[in-house]
Amino acid sequence: MSSNPFQDSMPVAPLKIIAMENCSQIGRQINQLIVERRTRALSEENHPTWKTHGYENENYLVSFDCPRFGTGEGKALIHESIRGSDLFIIADTVNYQQAYSIQGQNTLMSPDDHFMDLKRIIMACSGQPHRITVIMPYLYEGRQNIRLTNESLDCAQALQELVQMGVETIITFDAHDSRVQNAIPISGFDNFYTSYQFIREITETIPDIHLDNGHLMIISPDEGGMARAVFYATQLGVDMGMFYRRRDYTRKVQEENPIVSIEFLGNQIAGRDVILLDDMIASGNTVLEVCAELRKRGAGRIIICATFGLFSNGLEGFDKAYHQGLFDYIYTTNLSYCPEELTDKPYYRNVDLSRYIALIIDTLNHDTSVNDILDATERIQELLKQRQELR
């Protein structure tokens, strides 16, 4: 990862961070990492020759509230000055643990509620920051990104709303379909990938895994994840395969064309460990069906990697599948809410992205290029080289 100390670039404006309540934990981690990074940079012999007001700070997090009236209506309050600041707002729109009171009853917040609170915070800024960057790891309505019939195009509309409200750049991770950025063609939209972090975590937590074509294979559970699987397979120099569902389009069952069979495209799986990639685990039905098919084909260890672990149907199905031997590990990131129940599972591994986000924020605050952060190729190859030397 880039170690650019930014000696030659002053911050574009004093840094401020608003971590919405739905991602307060990772917000605190990011804040502490930036504090440590800047303190270290200023104490080194080759320290920056400039120093701006508020650059070295003990806290970059902004104090705010999003209270609710008894009816459930909300508002946002910012408790300190943000005038002229370089403001980064971090929001987890799929945190299903947050709640608010309406008519005396606790109501769990939906993604719509989280997105509305994000807009309230932007409104409360009243145009005072120098610029606003929204970091939305899980892109709100990212799966509703295309229009097939008479249906809403929610993700495009949400992006346009943020831009119209004064947001200069929107940052997301492993977007379901990054082409949705075409909705805001002249505004900033950065889609960062988590491939390096996943590969690093796998090699650290499964030290005996062999990252070569004779022992490993990359699998996409459907055609939508092909590009992601191809990238991993190319970087690691291994084979990749894909499952697809053959449907009966002559009839519908519960408004869906029924699946006739699950077909596999790829080379021999038997005897090889498998990394099964997806951008998210929602209900989990698809990924568990693929795990069952991989077991039938004689796969070795099955390692599920998904950027966002939503687990919308709970964890019972995964517990059952694990005890049946359908998979060995699940890796997801802390970019979305991870309940303690999940982190305690014997099969679960968490990939920490706080350091990555801290680097992105620090880089952008100095108004320097993020190209080397976007492209993980060099970092992955360096990781593989180091691993090879240790062996």
Report on this model:
With 391 residues, the chain is of the alpha/beta class. It has 2 domains: 15-193 and 354-375, 3-Layer(aba) Sandwich (Rossmann fold); 195-351, Rossmann fold. Helix content is 31%, strand content 22%. The chain has 11 helices and 16 strands. It has helices at residues 24-43, 111-125, 154-164, 195-205, 226-236, 285-296, 316-323, 340-343, 354-365, 371-374, 377-390; strands at 15-19, 64-65, 77-78, 86-90, 99-102, 105-108, 131-135, 167-173, 188-192, 216-220, 239-247, 259-265, 273-281, 302-309, 329-333, 348-351. The strands form 4 sheets. The chain has a 7-stranded mixed β-sheet, with helices on both faces. α1 packs across α9. The mean pLDDT is 90.
Strand content: 15-25%
N- to C-terminal distance: 22 Å
Shape: globular
Number of strands: 16
Q: Helix amount, in percent?
A: 25-40%
Number of domains: 2
- CATH architecture of the largest domain, by name, is 3-Layer(aba) Sandwich
Tell me the Rg in angstroms.
22 Å
The largest sheet, given as strand count, sense and whether it forms a barrel, is:
7 strands, mixed
CATH topology of the largest domain: Rossmann fold
Cross-sheet strand order for the largest sheet:
12-11-10-13-14-15-16
